[in-house]
Predict the 3D structure of the following.
Amino acid sequence: MIVRTTTEITDTDRDIVAENGNWRSKRIILGGDKVGFSLHETVIKAGTVNEFHYANHVEAVWLISGEGTLLDRETGQEYPLGPDTMYLLNGHERHTVTATTELRMYCVFNPPVVGNETHDENGVYPLVTVD
């Protein structure tokens, strides 16, 4: 059994802040925990526009608080984001998250993130595995 709090993760190597300062991700469960997925609490700053593309991962996002928009850059379709909204990037869609207010969400990745990944110039996490 694993029990963790986001408080104990804060300011550790599991607490990742984007280079541009737009978001912060607390990695609660990682690949090294060997459960087949990773779980992150992510906060995106109000007034920011963030481009992502998870070419190597499927991501499910559950928005807890805040408002914004999600743009599917593959289709041009835009979706409103608000509390209790879920989106699933099961087709590795290139997407843009615009935060009207601060967004707080929980994200699940498969395969799991190991913890030290950062987005490249295309917003992609490399596929890193744990032995």
